[in-house]
């Protein structure tokens, strides 16, 4: 989202993370801006029974964890890598200097956060009112169309596991497996070597 060279001009460093490494924990103070160079990161919470709820998954070129930086609150979720990841990290004070000097970047961040809010509203609506097949398909279409911007039939490979989709949509994994099979039967998706394509 922000040019990597510009981030480094303002004091950013590149950090390497192993798979399943915690970047920050829920209830920690927000001190840095994070942008993914390679890999993937999930933000999650756990309920009292230990069940995971995935707030979002972020990929190459995306940033995560910004809202607490702007409103001085603690992180509402944990951030954990899903694979080996290279992440550019910029301290909050340096980010604010960058944004004051580059208002067009500030506008881009505002647009990105607005897109995420819109997506969260859509998902909340889907979770509360739609059938599992519809919810799964809508989520996959969001990834294909809005996150990765891929066109064409069956050109997008879903990298999420069935369990991750269940955790994001508030479904049981068995329900997601059944929904995926039904969507394949309706020719909405294809399953090739256990991977889902849309």
TrEMBL record:
Positions of the HTH crp-type domain: 130-198
Presence of keyword Cytoplasm: no
Signal peptide start-end: none
Domain Cyclic nucleotide-binding intervals: 15-116
CDD domains xrefs: CAP_ED
Record PROSITE patterns: CNMP_BINDING_3, HTH_CRP_2
SUPFAM superfamilies according to UniProt: cAMP-binding domain-like, Winged helix' DNA-binding domain
Protein name as annotated: Cyclic nucleotide-binding protein
Record organism: Tenacibaculum todarodis
